[in-house]
Design brief:
The protein is α/β, with parallel strands linked by helices and about 775 residues long. A hairpin with a 4-residue loop joins strand 23 and strand 24. The protein folds into five domains: about 90 residues, Alpha-Beta Plaits (2-Layer Sandwich), CATH 3.30.70; about 80 residues, DHBP synthase (Alpha-Beta Complex); about 170 residues, DHBP synthase (Alpha-Beta Complex); about 120 residues, Nucleotidyltransferase, domain 5 (2-Layer Sandwich), CATH 3.30.420; about 230 residues, Nucleotidyltransferase, domain 5 (2-Layer Sandwich), CATH 3.30.420. Helix content is about 35%, strand content about 20%.
Length: about 775
């Protein structure tokens, strides 16, 4: 029989102590990762060390449960972190080590980018805001490591307070204590502050008179909005214009001031119950709306109605919930939906500074609800929708960007991608990461071009990034193309130019980590075609056999002329006339007596016919986007466009019920021809409801994709381009592929529109380098 002392000795001998080195890459800095690991180590009775460095987070853990630490770390990681890769290595045991410690960040050369996007306020911070006596009571800037601003306030890496716009606000003793306590959720939360020491609110007139400050400023701003006033409100990444969304006069005045006559306006609502009173959403859609990213979500209208001019002539409403403490305080006082649109004039950059608002919006807004925390990086609201059960990001920005994609192999040369002309963004690759930065906008004005170049400069400084290769579009007149060429020449960089529609397909491939050949459908409004094509330079209905090196054009829409070029895009009946003239005589078209042409005299027809005959002013296009514009005109839904995508949205609004059956014909030489379909539609307009015709027309796009995909069963199918933002088309397309058991790659995190072009260009550049090592 064993003595007690021998039994104890045997049990002690069974205890195995291990020491493990753990390197973690991803979004693991500035998100509460180190204090989480600290608490986890204490719970597991582990000793060791953790610190941030240029590659991410480095951890050493020692103890009986060291080998199970990594699995536990994955389960218990803080909500804003994203672990991309973990490497482990066994180390010799350190004798006599008693504690687990957090050491200061290593300010070394950066090889890993890990800035978290800005996130909505968390439940713990919200609870403190409602507690009288708490130092964060009604404080509009409360945050912790689980929420709040990140990207919009950091000036350079590493992400430490001296390198953020919070450096001007010394912490009070209470905030400093929380900041230095690993057991506190505000440990090393760089924007930590409170009513005593942090930024503050003030309500200003455009004459620079302060009406109220702190919470009283919020109260008076809410009262002003209730009376029909428009207030410019400073948020995380820029100013919004707020007005009562149930007050049609206030909405009309805002539209007039912004020069935005019809484009739907986003609405912010107080809470989910209010959203449900105005919309019919699914559990998935409402879950996305309530997520900490707090995007604008497109939801079907239902129930109570807002002012008719908030989102006229569309069946969806763009809705978001409050995402900053300031928004929460303001919306609680209002308790009505408010228009929350970016504070800028149409076509101009979002405003980020008080003096900009005073200078540019005095004829739009009545008051300014301002604060004194500077915005370092402008950042618009993200826009998303759910189609076929999949998230589709239409604007990649606050909450989701910077979007970081891990790479399997290290790029030996940094790559910079400059995007397109519309909805542009910047993207770059360094080390083993690809970074897609937030949406910037359309580069059609000098101010937008200056904002774009300022973003390029600030992001280069933020990430300490020097490119070795620059990638751009092929369009000779795009600002991004010209910049790519000048950057390459000035700094002796490698230059790549990627065909626009190839870049669309590459963006989907990048999101899904694909490099092998796909059958890619790139349907959009406009894109510069192959340089070798002598006349037809405006593409937009392209089916490509594509990989990361090249793309072969297999099919395309039979081209037709845009009468007057760019002017036709604003006047869809010109597009319709150009389409009809491919198949009918001018006399036949006039005899059709279509509603689209009812105001045109014979002289107008003759003048436009002469323009149609002149290739220099009426270029050929193979664009599905322009074909959809023609359909909207044919059905007399839109004859003059007020915003991009209006025609597709108009068709979607009326499409429902049993649709007519239409099919675009595909010829042996790769032409997608709508002639027979067009003749059938012209007959059906006399005897079928517009809803049935619209349903059939939109369904024909999904059917076309499926028909061509059946001819190439050996390749996965990828779809991209603005046409695939259409909810009606995408729902049917996803359902058809699901029923056929066929793989369909769609844009989910990266936009399918031109906002994804930079990502596609980057994917091309990365693999150009990897293949030429």
């Amino acid at each position: 029989m064993l003595t007690l002392s021998v039994w104890v000795l045997m049990q002690v001998c069974k205890v195995i102590i291990n020491r493990l080195a753990v390197r973690v890459w991803g979004t693991v800095q500035g998100v509460g990762f180190r204090p989480t690991i600290y608490r986890l180590a204490k719970e597991l009775q582990l000793t060791g060390v953790i610190n941030n460095n240029g590659e991410g987070v480095y951890i050493e853990v020692q103890g009986e449960q060291a080998l199970s630490f990594v699995d536990t770390m994955h389960r218990e990681a803080p909500p804003l972190s994203r672990i991309e890769r973990v490497d482990t290595q066994e180390l010799p045991v350190v004798q006599g080590e008693q504690v687990f410690v957090i050491v200061a960040s290593e300010h070394s050369t950066l090889t890993s980018i890990s800035i978290s996007p800005d996130k909505g306020v968390c439940p713990d911070c919200l609870a403190e805001m409602s507690q009288p006596g708490n130092r964060h009571y009604r404080y509009p800037f409360t945050n912790c490591t689980h929420c709040g601003p990140r990207y919009t306030l950091v000036k350079q890496l590493p992400y430490d307070r001296p390198f953020t716009s919070m450096s001007a606000f010394p912490m009070c003793p209470d905030c400093e204590k929380a900041y230095n306590d690993p057991e506190d959720r505000r440990y090393h939360a760089q924007p930590v502050s409170c009513n005593v020491c942090g930024p503050q609110i003030r309500l200003q007139t455009f004459e620079d008179v302060t009406l109220a400050d702190r919470y009283d400023g919020v109260v008076q701003a809410a009262a002003a909005i209730h009376t029909g006033k428009i207030v410019a409100v400073k948020g995380i990444g820029g100013y919004h214009l707020f007005c009562d969304a149930t007050n049609s006069d206030a909405v009309a005045r805002l539209r007039n001031g912004k020069h935005r006559p019809k484009k739907p306006l986003a609405v912010m609502m107080t809470h989910l119950e209010q959203v449900q009173a105005y919309t019919a959403g699914t559990e998935q859609e409402y879950g996305l709306l309530s997520s900490q990213e707090r995007p604008i979500v497109l939801l079907s209208k239902s129930g109570e109605e807002l002012a008719e001019n908030v989102a006229p002539d569309v069946n969806c409403l763009g809705v978001m919930l409050p995402y900053t403490p300031l928004h929460v305080l303001l919306l609680e006082l209002l308790d009505v939906p408010v228009v929350a649109t970016s504070a800028n004039l149409s076509g101009q950059p979002i405003l980020t500074a008080y003096e900009q608002v005073r200078a540019q919006l005095s004829n739009v807004a009545d008051l300014i609800l301002d604060h004194n925390r500077p915005i370092v990086h402008p950042c618009d609201d993200s826009l998303v929708q759910i189609v076929g059960g999949r998230r589709q990001t239409l604007r990649l920005s606050r909450g989701y960007a910077p979007l970081i994609l891990p790479l399997e192999s290290r790029v030996e040369k940094n790559v910079l991608a400059l995007g397109a002309q519309q909805k542009t963004s910047l993207a770059f690759a360094t080390g083993k990461q690809a970074v897609i930065n937030p949406f910037i906008g359309d580069l059609n004005s000098l101010d937008m071009q200056e904002r774009y170049e300022a973003n390029l400069e600030s992001d280069s400084g933020l990430y300490q990034f020097k490119p070795g290769m620059v990638v751009g579009d092929q369009h000779p007149a795009y600002e991004t193309t010209l910049l790519a060429q000048s950057e390459a020449e000035e700094h002796d960089l490698s230059l790549c130019q990627v065909q626009h529609h190839h870049a669309h397909i590459l963006s989907v491939m990048a999101e899904h980590g694909r490099t092998n050949t796909v059958l890619g459908f790139a349907f959009d409004g406009t894109g510069f075609g192959d340089e070798d094509n002598s006349e037809e330079h405006i593409w937009g209905g392209e089916v490509l056999l594509a990989d990361v090196e090249q793309a072969q054009r297999l099919y395309h829409l039979k081209p037709f002329r845009l009468i007057g070029g760019e002017r036709a895009i604003k006047e869809p009946r010109r597009i319709l006339l150009g389409l009809l003239l491919e198949y009918f005589s001018l006399d036949d078209i006039q005899e059709f007596q279509l509603p689209a042409f009812r105001t045109w005299a014979p002289m107008v027809f003759n003048n436009l016919y002469r323009l149609w005959q002149n290739p220099s002013v009426s270029p050929l296009t193979s664009s599905i986007g322009r074909l959809i514009d023609a359909w909207a005109s044919l059905l007399d839904l839109v004859q003059e466009t007020a915003f991009e995508g209006e025609c597709g949205m108009a068709l979607e609004r009326v499409a429902h019920g049993q649709g007519c059956e239409y099919r675009l014909q595909v010829s042996e030489n790769g032409l997608m021809d709508c002639s027979a379909m067009l003749a059938q539609v012209l007959d059906d307009l006399h005897c079928k409801p517009v809803s049935s015709v619209a349903t059939g027309l939109l369904t024909s796009v999904a059917t076309l994709v499926m028909d061509i995909a059946r001819c190439h069963p050996e390749f996965p199918v990828a779809v991209s381009g603005g046409v695939f933002q259409n909810r009606f088309i995408m729902e049917r397309l996803i359902n058809q592929f699901h029923a056929a058991g066929r793989e369909l790659l769609t844009s989910e995190s990266i936009p399918p529109n031109d906002g994804g072009i930079a990502a596609g260009q980057l994917w091309y550049g990365i693999h150009s380098i990897l293949q030429n090592r």
